[in-house]
Automatic annotation (TrEMBL), chain A:
One of its GO terms (molecular function) is molybdate ion transmembrane transporter activity. It comes from Nonomuraea dietziae. This is Molybdenum transport system permease. Pfam families: BPD_transp_1. Residues 1-11 have a biased composition (Low complexity). It is a multi-pass membrane protein. PANTHER family: MOLYBDENUM TRANSPORT SYSTEM PERMEASE PROTEIN MODB (PTHR30183:SF3).
UniProtKB/TrEMBL annotation, chain B:
Molybdate binds at S55, S83, V185, Y203. Keywords: Metal-binding, Molybdenum, Signal. NCBIfam families: modA. Gene3D superfamilies: Periplasmic binding protein-like II (3.40.190.10). This is Molybdate transport system substrate-binding protein.
Length: 295, 267
């Protein structure tokens, strides 16, 4: 991300006629004097505003209906903090797992051509279209006590994932990883491959090229993907409650607490939703400024 | 300039991320889409929209077909879901004709809002211990659930089957530490069917519906936690008289036969 770690594109000759504009590179931004100006086209502006309203107005509904006088009192309940802590911890670990597994997977899809790559790419997006509850059942069938792998895990290591916090991480990572992979793969495809080729001609191994050239180039894509992935993990409901169950302290994350509160106390559910929203907005906004918006 | 550009470019993932958090929250809720369209169109064709507890899915679908056969030209539409969710939908203005709830408390939400007539109890349901078909933990009585080696799933106390479980456990003076508190009775049963838990407390009707996959064990304390299913027509029922006739069918001899066959007890 920082320019010192990147392959110094600033020092690249900026006058060369064959120099393609590198996407997102500083030079690319510098030589764009013909900025598009003029009246905003209403054909874009109207749907844009409608789209924004569609996304934001339901939140306004939550805010209007929130039981403000009893808000603090409800927040002080130990179960709320417990669920919030569990949500933040599991979503963060799930994001770390997704980074470790997802970035190499995205690299494989973007940089290595192998038979069946299209099919593999489609398979990666399966958790996106699968109803999360079905995802949870699928995880049970694989990793449950009688699952294909789970059986062996239990008999060999005495390890069971369902009904544990580790199970929550597994469910969240399963559902959230496609967001990271798609985002990182997009960044890889958009990145100028000639930097990598140049490094290779100078004798760098594929691993070195990845570590020293590719990774810094696509860092904004990785961060954006990780943010999406974390957010998805934080809001995960269906796969978690199906695979990991619901028990306060070990597997009851905020969305699960919200759902159950809705059964008896809709007002408490609104409070919990607001907490989840506020925390995620604060973290996402601060992350963006800190990591993504460095000049 | 470049700073502003990047700020804008990155607002997108952040906004998307927020949307994603929200979408995740609601993904487990039953859809309300089936609630629409009770306003019937056409000549003589009439529709009754019935909101019913998820545990009534099988029996009410059957009764709906019987109703359509007995009243040619009519059709019955169902919205099955958690009773509490259905009650919320009705209070928020969903166009329903009949509400059949799995607990008097959820029905009270609707009657308190003066949206339903006097409810009638049409069936009772009772808990049973459900164990996987091979019963790996050799559970055969209620006390076995307190054994630390037995993995138990219960419904969350917020939902009717969980409230009944708490009542039954209290009546027996039994202290059980479940591994999970599921969001509804079907989810609880699924954990047994897949063998993830050794035992669970679910309704007798659910055990009968899953015959072959789970085994049911009756226990005496279940009598302390019998609970009533009330049914009522809604005061603003678009189907009017037809709604009342559907309730009559449920309360009739024929209705009772269908319901008792599924394991319900009739009052």
């Amino acid at each position: 991300m920082t320019s010192s770690a990147s392959p110094s594109p600033d020092r690249a000759p900026s006058r060369g006629p064959d120099r393609a504009p590198s996407r997102g590179g500083p030079a690319g931004r510098r030589d764009s004097p013909r900025r598009v100006t003029g009246r905003l086209p209403w054909m874009l502006l109207v749907p844009a505003v409608l789209g924004l309203a569609f996304l934001v107005l339901p939140l306004a509904g939550l805010l209007v209906r929130a039981p403000w006088p009893t808000l603090l009192q409800r927040l002080a309940e130990p179960q709320v903090l417990q669920a919030l802590r569990l949500s933040l911890v599991t979503a963060s670990i799930a994001t770390a797992v997704c980074l470790v597994l997802g970035v190499p997977l995205a690299w494989l899809l973007a940089r290595v051509s192998f038979p069946g790559r299209r099919v593999v790419r489609a398979l990666v997006t399966v958790p996106l279209v699968l109803p999360p509850v079905v995802g949870g059942v699928a995880l049970l069938l694989l990793l449950g006590r009688r699952g294909l792998l789970g059986q062996w895990l239990e008999s060999t290591f005495g390890l069971t994932l369902p009904f544990t916090s580790a199970g929550v991480v597994v469910a969240e990572a399963f559902v959230a990883m496609p967001f990271l992979v798609i985002s990182v793969e997009g960044a890889l495809r958009g990145a100028d491959q000639r930097f990598e080729e140049a490094a290779a001609t100078l004798g760098a191994s594929r691993w070195t090229v990845f570590r020293r050239v590719t990774l810094p180039l696509i860092m904004p894509g990785i961060v954006a993907g990780a943010v999406l992935c974390w957010a998805r993990a934080l809001g995960e409901f269906g796969a978690t409650i199906t695979f990991a169950g619901n028990f306060p302290g070990t597997t009851q994350t905020m969305p699960l607490a919200v759902y159950l509160a809705l059964e008896t106390e809709p007002e408490a559910a609104i409070v919990l939703s607001l907490v989840l929203l506020a925390v995620s907005v604060i973290i996402l906004a601060s992350l963006r400024d800190r990591w993504v918006n460095t000049p | 300039m470049s700073r502003r550009l990047s700020r804008r470019a990155l607002a997108l993932p952040a906004a998307l991320a927020i949307a994603v958090v929200l979408s995740g929250c609601g993904s487990g809720r039953p859809s309300a889409s089936t609630a629409s369209g009770s306003a019937a169109a056409g000549d003589g064709a009439k529709e009754v929209t019935v909101f019913a507890a998820a545990s009534l899915t099988g029996t009410f679908t059957e009764l709906g077909k019987a109703f359509e056969a007995a009243h040619p030209g009519t059709s019955v539409r169902f919205n099955f879901g958690s009773s509490a969710t259905l009650a919320q939908q009705i209070v928020q203005g969903a166009p329903a004709d009949v509400f059949a709830a799995a607990s008097p408390a959820t029905m009270k939400t609707v009657t308190d809002a003066s949206l339903a007539g006097a409810p009638a109890t049409f069936v009772r349901n009772k808990l049973q211990i459900a164990v996987p078909a091979d019963n790996p933990a050799e559970v055969d009585e209620f006390e076995d659930l307190a054994d630390a080696r037995v993995k138990v799933a219960l419904c969350a106390p917020q939902v009717p089957c969980g409230a009944a479980a708490v009542k039954a456990l209290d009546a027996a003076g039994l202290k059980v530490t479940p591994v999970t508190l599921e969001q509804d009775v079907k989810a609880t049963l699924t954990k047994v069917e897949l063998g993830e838990v050794d035992a669970a407390l679910v309704y007798r009707t659910d055990v009968i519906a899953a015959a072959g996959k789970v085994k049911g064990i009756a226990f005496p304390e279940a009598d302390q936690a019998i609970h009533d299913y009330p049914i009522a027509t809604l005061t603003e029922a678009p189907a009017g008289d037809l709604a009342r006739r559907f309730v009559d069918l449920v309360l009739s001899r024929q209705g009772k036969d269908v319901l008792t066959k599924a394991g319900f007890e009739t009052p």
